[in-house]
Amino acid sequence: MPREARRAAPAARLCGLAWIACSMLFLPAAAAQTLDCAQCHEQPHMIVGSAHASVGCLTCHPGHNVFPHPEGIPKPKCADCHQDVAAQNRLGIHGRARAQGNLKAPDCSGCHGDIHQVQRTGTEAFRKSIPGICGRCHNQIYAQYHQSVHGQAVAAGIVAAPVCSTCHGEHQIQPPTMATSPVNPIHIPETCGRCHGNVALAREFDLPTNVVVSYEASFHGLALRAGQQTVANCATCHGVHEILPPSDPRSTINPKNLPRTCGKCHPGAGTRFAIGRIHWSSRSEPAVMRWVRISYVTLILLVVGLMALHNFGDWVRKLLQTRLRIRREGAGRGRFAHVSASMRMYWFERIEHGLLVVSFAILVWSGFALRYPNQWWAAPLLAWEAGWAVRGAVHRIAGVILMVLAVAHVVSLIANRKLRLHWKGLAPMASDARQAAAAFAYNLGLRKQRPALASHSYIEKVEYWAVLWGVMVMALTGVLLWAHTYIVAWVPRIVLNVAGSIHFYEAVLATLAIVVWHFYRVIFDPDVYPVDPSWLTGYSVREYPDEESAEEAEDGPPSTGEEA
Known about the structure:
Elements lengths: L2 H24 L2 H9 L5 H5 L9 H4 L17 H4 L1 H9 L1 H7 L8 H5 L11 H12 L3 H9 L1 H7 L8 H5 L19 H9 L2 H6 L6 H7 L1 H7 L8 H5 L19 H6 L23 H36 L16 E2 L6 H25 L7 H4 L7 H26 L1 H7 L6 H14 L14 H25 L1 H4 L5 H32 L9 H4 L6 E2 L1 H9 L9
Antiparallel strand pairs: 1-2
Helix pairs in contact: 9-10, 13-15, 15-16, 19-24, 19-27, 20-22, 22-23, 22-25, 25-27
């Protein structure tokens, strides 16, 4: 060694000792412990960069700060520091399996690795490794996932792509049969919706933005929300782990494979069943669905609005006449030359009417409960829904009763001359439109004289023919929806979608018409309030003209109308 080097060696050693002393004084305790332990053990070198890099050796190895190390000191468990995670794991399928003696079930180190090399879970590298970690035990599922759109996306480095823990959870993994599991059938739309219902994420990766909304609005979505776990969900059609794009011939949603996929629940579903879009909303709906929706919404607003305006004007007129004593020419009682207490409803008709009221009320309740299962008024029907499709069964029974009543009514008119003559007055005539226009103008204050109406005027005719029309439309579309298992083999699925849309909007129109038009006529009209008893006794408290007055009403209002 050169003389200069020998002279510098003592100084270098002094500097090294000084540096070590400073390190022991000023470095964190964990680093100081690591420097000490690293003289004999390789673990301190392994722990650098791991999730436990900030944890000192003595934290997990107490009493080892002396040498030789004491024996028999137990090492702490992961649960001592990670109590919440350990509690979740005990409730999960892996923790339960180990508690039952299955030592092959993964523990903390089985997924996170050696305690000295635990990866940071928030890193892209760890997230990318999750499918492989789970695949050590679930190798067949891993093979399916690796080929799927999700697996390929993860392999391509797309961090937002779902991995095993995205759907199944992390530590409290539960089997699909448990109601609280995120992959239980009842929760699958919600689980898939975390990504496919995220508009920002869907736009970033050019995914459809309406799939979750359209599913929830469909028959399958509504039934699932009501607790029917056997109905089709996302995984039923798209697969569980082997999800493939529609363009892939192996995909369950490839157009060529849709008949087989749909046929799992709809035996005999033909190739025509799969024609058209599966997922669509109001922004992407087929043209025929848009036409049905716009037409019915316009019709409902127009018809129900005119009904409400007509009845409100009539109510205000009668309020002024009966309560405020303001009378006008041709108004109020005394507008008929002769008044007769004629029979309004025979006993057979009263029975028909009673059954019609009951069946219609049940149809409205159960039908809208099918559409809006989360509402409080639907709760009684949903109480047993998980084990039995109560709403559908009740709705169909009431529908059959309604159709039987319609057939019985037609048969009775054909077979019974007395009933036929009684209902003959409901035949539409050209004068009905003139009477309706005159009465509407009078109710709005545009006409001073109230027109005389026949005993079966446009009011009764609107009710009667609207009921017949509604029953026919609801029966036709209802039978199509009921027999969908057989219909799908012959027609495109869009036919059932159109039938369902017409069925729903017709139900809305019928319900509003009954409430606004019929209920006013038989309950809230001041002439009969609190109720017209003709549905019980056959006779009404309302004044109806006899045949002579009816003839006068046909020719026009009486020339000698008295002011009441």
